[in-house]
Design goal:
By secondary structure, the protein is α+β, with helices and mostly antiparallel strands. It folds into 3 domains: 2-83; 108-170, SH3 type barrels (Roll), CATH 2.30.30; 177-276, Alpha-Beta Plaits (2-Layer Sandwich), CATH 3.30.70.100. Helix content is 47%, strand content 19%. It contains 7 helices and 8 strands, in the order H-H-H-H-E-E-E-E-H-E-E-H-E-E-H. It has a 5-stranded antiparallel β-sheet, with no helix packed on it. A 3-stranded antiparallel β-sheet has the order 6-8-7, covered by helices on one side. A hairpin with a 4-residue loop joins strand 7 (236-241) and strand 8. The chain is elongated and about 105 Å long. The termini are far apart.
Amino acid sequence: MFEKILLTLAGLVAVVLAASALRALSGAIFRGGSGDRPRFWMAQVIRIAALALSIIIVVRIWASDTTQLTAAMGWLAAGLMIALQRVVTAFAGYVIILRGRIFTVGDRITMGNVRGDVVALGFMQTTVMEMGQAPGEQSDNPSMWVKARQYTGRLVRVTNDKVFDSPVYNYTRDFPFVWEEITIPIRYQDDYRVVEHLLLDIAQANTKDIIDDARRAFDNMRDKYFVNDTPSVDPRVYVRMTDNWLELSLRFIARDRGTRDLHDTMTRELLAGMRSAGIGVASGTYAIVELPEVKVDLVRK
């Protein structure tokens, strides 16, 4: 018995040392920013191989009495399945994520109410660099103090079993583009056609390369998925009448990253163009231009 314990410890120590050496070697080979993804997956393969080899070593050393070993392994497996249900489910989620190509490191996702970029994918947990919320997502849970899809600075760990409980939104897989909108209200007495042409010109100038790439990406996506309707990637302006003003909404295509910078650039150009055309932004503010006459009677006692 004592000899088997020593052999088991020696075998496990050898596996750990070999795995550490292989990880160090892979880190030296895949050095630099371009090697982040290969280094990550090499580390994953080394961990799986080390786990499998450890199990084989333990079984080989303690398998002298196969009947007792089989019974013990059966009871142990049953106990672990009951005690570690969430752990087993999380590992199953890891397998589903890989086999189903749901996401991988570097993808921008939303999973379990967490939004951000996947920076690590483990057997049990996925690590996400959290990002904020766009204006249309401000009411979503959890609320953020960053009012755009930019990093908040927090790393969030999400258990992989969330793929069975909630939908996973992927911003980058197969079609790394999103549709954005800029909405501007103008007064009824202003010429909305001037603002409409201004919006379209700005969108065309800033998204021309994005439109070409989006068309190619969508054509590739049609080969993989059944897409009955072909959405337009060209910018378009929609006009809506309200009680107070005309509302013009520019719909345009953007990449999955850098959306806020693009939005900022287009908004600045829009404001400059409207100022040159003498058209202002409509608002619900009120200006008091005259006060009624006020009479004050002073009574002395």
